[in-house]
Amino acid sequence: MDTRLLTTFTTLARTGSFTAAAAELHLAQSTVTVHIRTLERDLGVPLFDRLPTGAPLTDAGRRLLVEAEEVLDAVARLRSAAGEDGPVAGRVVVGTPESLCATRLPAVIAALRTEHPDVDVDLRAAGTEECVQGLRSGHLDLALLMAEDAEPPEIATEPVAREALALVASPGHPLAGRDRPAAWGDLAAEHFFLLEEGCAYSDAFERRLRAAPGAGPRVTRFGSVDAARSCAAAGLGLTLLPATTVAEHLRDGRLRRIVLDGPPLADVPVRLARHRRRWAAPAVRQVARTLVRHLAQAGDGDAGHRAADAAAGEA
């Protein structure tokens, strides 16, 4: 069987559109149509329903998609084995929260360029749900999720680090100048600038805010760390962000940390994730190892390397 037909099949299954599949594969739409018709004739079953709104998989198509992906993975493994004696090379697409893009990952990219110059990494800033969908669709090879106990179906995750959170406001904010910690009730009527829905720690913080007696906070959501941070620094309200993203603002006095009464805000786990069924190419495994090496907490190196191997499909 021509593996090009399987590649077209899996691409159309992922995109749900003949037009989108043709654009991604750099083929004419008529060629995609011919590939799918040929494969359906060879297999003896219809793989897609042709609808005005798209091309969803039939029951047979959903069942055979798993087998097609396994065949393509086997072909990729065969080609990789043929080039094992050469340098690790390839492009790896990693989904990651914006805060990690800006603070933690430049060192990873620098290390990879030095140690594996033939490996290219594309970073895609995305929230938890977007990363999960990217892994499922094949648009992402790896993802970093900032979420507690994130284990979506078909996605394997391993904890590799933890990120501290900071609740901050401008120095002139009433809660910033107090000589005692702020109770959750003190936050009830404040204005908060949080990251967009789907950011696990922002969603959890808002739920806790609204659970306080008499709570009626005003919450504005942003897709940008810089936007949320700038609003807080301008005196418009408070924001909750990873401590690394506000460290410079705290040092130079543009922001001040708000201390809460009771237990401190829990650190957020950073989890390395990949699709369970897809084979991980050598470049993907190397990027996973390098991510873990730079993100794992000091003193937890052995556990971190086990996590990298598991997340890269070696465990």
Parts with pLDDT < 50 across at least 5 consecutive residues: 297-315
Radius of gyration: 23 Å
Tally of alpha and pi helices? 12
End-to-end distance = 31 Å
Which structural class do the helices and strands define? alpha/beta
Percentage of residues in DSSP E strands: 15-25%
Which sheet architecture does the biggest sheet show? 5 strands, mixed
Give the SSE string: HHHHEHHEHEEEEHEHEHEEHH
| Strand line-up of the largest beta sheet | 2-1-3-10-4
Tally the beta strands. Answer: 10
* Overall pLDDT confidence: 85
Global geometry: elongated
How much helix is in the residues? 40-55%
Account of the 3D structure:
There is one protein chain. The chain has 315 residues and is α/β, with parallel strands linked by helices. The chain is 45% helix and 18% strand. The protein has 12 helices and 10 strands. A 5-stranded mixed beta sheet has the order 2-1-3-10-4, sandwiched between helices. Strands 8-5-9 form a 3-stranded antiparallel beta sheet, covered by helices on one side. Strands 6-7 form a two-stranded parallel ribbon. Helix 8 links the parallel strand 6 (191-195) and strand 7 (218-222). The longest helix is centred in the N-terminal third of the chain and has 24 residues, at 59-82. The relative contact order is 0.14. Mean pLDDT is 85; it is low at 297-315.
